[in-house]
Amino acid sequence: MPTINEKISEEIRAQAKKLLAEGTVAAVIGYASGSLPMTVKPLVVRRPEDCGKLLWNTFCVLNLANFLPEVLKSVEPPRGPRDPKPEGPLPKVAIMATGCWSRNIVVQIQEHQVERERVVVMGVGSRGMVSRRKVEALFAGREILAVEELDHDLIVRGSGFEEKINRWSVVRDNCQTCTHPDPLLVDVRIGEPVSDRKNPNPFKQVDELEAKSAAERWGWFTSEFATCIRCYACRNACPLCYCPTCFVDDAKPQWVGKSLDATDTGLFHVMRAYHCAGRCTDCGACESVCPMGINMRLLTKKLNKDVLNLYGIEAGMQPDSPLPLTTYKINDPQKFIVTEAGAGKEGE
Amino acid sequence: MTSKTNETSQTNWEPKIIAFLCNWCSYAGADLAGVSRFQYPPNIRIVRVPCSGRVSENMILSALKSGADGILVSGCHPGDCHYISGNYFARRRFALLGNLLDFIGIEPGRVNFSWVSAAEGEQFAEVVRTVTEKVKELGPATRLVKKIEAMQAA
Ligand code: SF4
Ligand code: SF4
Ligand code: SF4
User: Fold this and answer.
1) How many interface pairs between A and B have CB atoms less than 8 angstroms apart?
2) In terms of Cα–Cα distance, which of A317, A315, A309, A342 is closest to A240?
3) Is A332 a domain residue?
């Protein structure tokens, strides 16, 4: 009996092959197997005969939308920076998308990084992706050589051991609290749609920190980011971070120093998170790629909570309305203004 | 440097507060306060900006990093923006930034936002008094401040 994800992989290969062979798309963005257990690598397929490399499993933690603007550019006929856009429609690109990735594509469309008509979304309902870190923590001190995936369990093998663990128990935190696992945009449906999940409080982690004192929160912030090596993987993995020059690379003025100074590291994280305000879909790619296991996603989660509470917007859920920070309402809450009667923290 | 002077002269420490004031309302309000000889604490250092919408998180955080003990950002009242809507956009951004800074443990009262019009000289003095009071109570800023000694050691 093939597992759910094996069936999905089959469907992806067949659909990708069809799209490429028909000439509907010039490239397909998907996943191929990685070189280590529990890893996959993003793959751009341009020929129908290469579609056999595509796969889908429970370790697809990167956000494929991150590659979309670049791949779209790569399939355009070459032209100089000042040359006019060629006439007629430009080639299309197909991309696998779960709930959060499809919302990131919506944000990219809202921000004019991607044209809707050039994207063929192969929508896959997400069952939650597994955190490699969580699995490794369960087998601390033992080397994992292979992990086999069943529908509800994982079989972890190493030299001299083989254990079965429950899949959901090692699913990433952001997937466990996700409420919209099914893609918003679907051109080609892969597998069965999954329904929205009920989640009593997706912001539990944020609430717990908010309940603490300012000194305790500062303690959390400084210790959480103390081990950051400033590799910027969290930024590079994020589909929102397509700026040609990021603020961390600005030299005049230099907003953050390049050293490992704790203040500079802290400022980098505050600003990076803030740049994602109203745009972050909590896809968890940033957290998944961090080599130091830093939980920087909590910052964007806090912003997501505020954007939802203050402006009633969840990023990428309303393709036809503007992004929360590109619009305003005359009566937006403003308790944070010092001169207001009853001034205080916003949203309380 | 700032931290050193702060340590040695803790008793008569006076906070430095960076005030980003929009050209059309709050800066004019500060001007009016001066012309009308309203008294307010001399702790603020004014940076004139075209609009509160011009003030980015980079500027606020840079000021903190450089050792400002407090920040005040002030623009026109909602509806009065010289550029029609600059302060409306700014309001959303400041609400989120204020909350995020609070979330990471920056003391409430370090970073402040207000609306002051060109006709509100007395109100401007009042805002500066409130903010200075708050910052004095908090003491010298240490969080998100880049220490020069630490920098030299690195
Ligand atoms: S962190 Fe900010 S400036 Fe840097 S790439 Fe991301 S959005 Fe752009
Ligand atoms: S900030 Fe992190 S969780 Fe949010 S969209 Fe970017 S990669 Fe995904
Ligand atoms: S990926 Fe991790 S270590 Fe690298 S810059 Fe981001 S938080 Fe720091």
Assistant:
1) 135
2) A315
3) no
Residue nearest to atom 7 of ligand 2 (CA): A238
Render pLDDT for A318-339 as a digit per residue (tens, 0 to 9): 888 899 999 999 989 888 888 7
- Domain co-membership, A299 together with A237: yes
DSSP state of A68: H
Helix H or strand E segment including A19: helix A4-22
A240 close to ligand 2 (CB < 6 Angstrom): yes
Tell me the C-alpha distance between A221 and A3, whole Å: 41
Whole-angstrom distance, CA of residue A59 vs CA of residue A172: 10
Sheet containing A144-149: which strands, arranged edge to edge?
Answer: A144-149, A153-158, A161-166
The total number of structural domains that make up chain A:
2
Cβ atoms within 10 A of the Cβ of A48, count? 16
A105 lines ligand 2 (CB under 6 A): no
- Residue located via tokens 């699995």: A135
Facing residue for B105 by CB, picked from A221, A325, A347: A221
Q: Looking at the partner chain, which of B92, B102, B116 has a beta carbon nearest the beta carbon of A324?
A: B92
Domain coverage including residue A252? 204-326
Chain A residues touching residue B112 (CB < 8 angstroms): 338
The label of the residue with tokens 């001299």 reads: A160
Do strands A161-166 and B111-115 pair parallel, antiparallel, or not at all (unpaired)?
Answer: unpaired
Kindly state the DSSP code that residue A65 receives in the 8-state scheme.
G
What CATH number is given for B13-153 in this structure? 3.40.50
CA of A104 to the centre of ligand 3 (A): 21
Predicted local distance difference test score (pLDDT) of residue A85: 83
pLDDT at B5 over 60: no
Give the residue from B54, B61, B49 showing the smallest Cα distance to B21. Answer: B49
Contact (Cβ atoms closer than 8 angstroms) between residue A137 and residue A165:
no
A143 C-alpha to center of ligand 1: Å?
Answer: 36
Do both A119 and A212 map to the same domain? no
Q: Is A95 part of a structural domain of the chain?
A: yes
Number of helices (H), then strands (E), in chain B: 6, 4
Residue nearest to atom 4 of ligand 2 (CA): A280
Q: Which segments in chain A show pLDDT lower than 50?
A: none
Provide the 3-class DSSP secondary structure of residue B21: strand
Q: How far is A174 from chain B (nearest CA, A)?
A: 19
What is chain B's length? 154
ipTM: 0.90
Angle, CA A238 vertex, CA A235 and CA A241 arms, to 5°: 70
Interface touch A266/B104, C-beta < 8 Å: yes
Q: How far is the CA of A310 from the centre of ligand 3 (A)?
A: 29
